[in-house]
Amino acid sequence: LPKDPTICSIWNEALDLHDVQDITEQSEFLALRQQLGIDRIHLETLSRYHVRGHMDSYDQPAICYPRYRGPCGRARIPFGLKLIRKVGDRLEKENFPEPDDTGVMPFSGIFGFHMATAADNRIILTTNERDALAVYEGTGGMLAIALPQGEKLDKSILPYLEDFDIIYLWFPQVHEKNAKDLAAYLNANRCYIIVCKERPIELLRNDARREINKAIREEAVRVRGKGFRSMIDVRQDLKSEIINSRNKQTGIAQWKRFDLLNRYLYGFRPSELTVLTGGTGYGKTTFLCEYSLDLLSQGVRTLFCSFEMPDEKILKWMLVQYAAPFYLRHLDRLRTSRNGIPIPLYRAEHHPSVEMWLDRFERTKGDLVIMKVDEFRDKTISQIAAAIRNQIITSGIQHVVIDNLQFLVGLATLNSEKTTALERYNQQDRFVSLLREIATDYGPHITLVVHPRKTDSDTDLDIQHFGGSARVTQEADTIFAIQRRRDEKDKRKYRKFLYILKNRYGQKKVESDIIEMIFQPATYTHCLVDRSAEQNK
Length: 537
Hints:
There is one protein chain. The chain has 537 residues and is an alpha/beta fold. It has three domains: 1-109, no CATH class; 116-243, Dna Topoisomerase Vi A Subunit, Chain: A, domain 2; 248-535, Rossmann fold (3-Layer(aba) Sandwich). The chain is 36% helix and 20% strand. It has 19 helices and 21 strands. It has helices at 5-13, 23-36, 43-48, 129-139, 176-186, 200-205, 210-218, 231-243, 245-250, 260-265, 284-296, 311-329, 331-334, 351-362, 381-395, 405-412, 421-442, 471-475, 532-535, and strands at residues 15-16, 52-55, 61-67, 80-87, 90-96, 122-126, 144-146, 166-170, 191-194, 220-222, 273-278, 302-306, 337-338, 341-342, 368-370, 399-403, 445-449, 478-486, 494-503, 515-520, 525-530. The strands form four sheets. The chain has a nine-stranded mixed β-sheet, sandwiched between helices. β18 and β19 (494-503) form a beta hairpin. α11 (284-296) crosses α12 and α15 (381-395) runs parallel beside α17 (421-442). It is elongated. This is SF4 helicase domain-containing protein.
């Protein structure tokens, strides 16, 4: 791969600290090493790690930590570089190559990895360069590297660690969970977490370098297989579950447009599966757009996968719904009514303001990602689930909306004319299981639309009316059903009600006409009204 020109320039100007001849520069670099806490690290160790010193045109010293992707000599230019430069009284950090336009730093290698050989069967992972140097110094040469993203999970490093039989993870105590998460990806059976309260560099600076070896021998705890845990492992989680139960029930957001839901569900929580059903034409997608918009506006990062409606129509509904509160508040001043009937935002009279609302919608707190369904027409169920999972990981998605299960399975079996109804049911079960796995492993809340079986129009929907097998109702944490019935006062009209058929964590179910959904056509919005008082009369 071509080297970054900035890295080439800095590296060619930098010197091994052994080779610094100028007395003033020697003093400057020593002061910087003391400030960084690596003055106890021998120059021989720094040299083995190819650590160099760099003096810029303003005579400001910097320590250069190189990153490599494999064994190499001292003269070879590294793929990546981390600089800590002393600027006045403060320290400034720079990484090269620099982050891209999205702020993501490209993988450019690992500090210390150039010393790995085929004979090495064990390695120590640390979260920064100072700890790696201290481990090497304190153990007399045990291979230790610094992860380029620190304690953050970085899957780019996984291929580089495949050949090691034993992997030690020495993370700061506050990041022990991060160490366990990484160990799960590395195969927990070969991983040991060092649970020492002090970091290696702290032990070295406190003249306790022997304790580094001791910690590796005596304080390294083997990580169990992912499926097995003891009471000791879950103790803190159990304590947190009891003490923080209210906060966990509240979740990461509360509904504002549909604040009535907070009374029954308590909040929007990660790692859950919500299912929405309702007859054809009942307004499932319209409600779902506003439901997800409510959370998106509060900063919940959302992935919307519409397999039935075009993306443009989904976004049109959400934009009109987004503008609805302002539109209704300023109805009279804007003169947006004709003969007492509100004129919708999407009418020609409002076209000059559409651009303004698009700008505002783009600046919502949460990121909205739309799945381009056309790209998945020839994909299998597993491939579609994998694409969703990858998008969750790369974009940090917190809410996945899928509309709907039957259309998705139909898309996946489009080219197979011999697919039977039983096979489609099995495909649905398989996809629901994959969604449950994604929600559990990666933490997003998944909302899934499922069409009910064909029933009489007067029959209330129940859990038994879901299309496919019972898998979707078993896996779901929450089940919403939109019920529709004729208005007794005006037989030409219908009234809609939101039932909560399953509520695993909130416990409160609604199986009667308590939550009425009043639709406002001009803004594509619903208003949830509590009719429980009328039920109790």
